[in-house]
Amino acid sequence: MNTLPPISSQAPLKFLSPEATETAFNHWLLELLPGVRQAIADQGFAKGQQLTAFRVYLAGFDPAGEM
Predict the structure, then answer these.
(1) Domain of life, per the record (predicted)?
(2) Model-level pTM?
(3) What share of the chain in percent tops pLDDT 70?
């Protein structure tokens, strides 16, 4: 069962997930395909944290390493 709320391009991202951190961003990058990972990493954390896909990932991210 999907426990995440439906995602809308109009939804304010701050309500969908916890605060973005570089640690969470780096964990997310590790789960991506190498080419995609590099392209996003090259843009940096400041731009990457705004991506909807990263915000969805944050909704399930556990800083202790357990998702």
Answers:
(1) Bacteria
(2) 0.54
(3) 69
Residue 1 burial (CB < 10 Å; 0-12/13-18/19+)? exposed
Tokens linked to 7: 């995602």
Q: What is the pLDDT of residues 48-67, one digit of tens each?
A: 999 999 999 988 888 776 55
Q: Which amino acid is at 14?
A: K
Residue corresponding to tokens 């605060």: 19
Element (H, E) at 45: helix 45-48
The C-alpha R_g of the chain, in whole angstroms, comes to 12
CA distance 8 to 32: 22
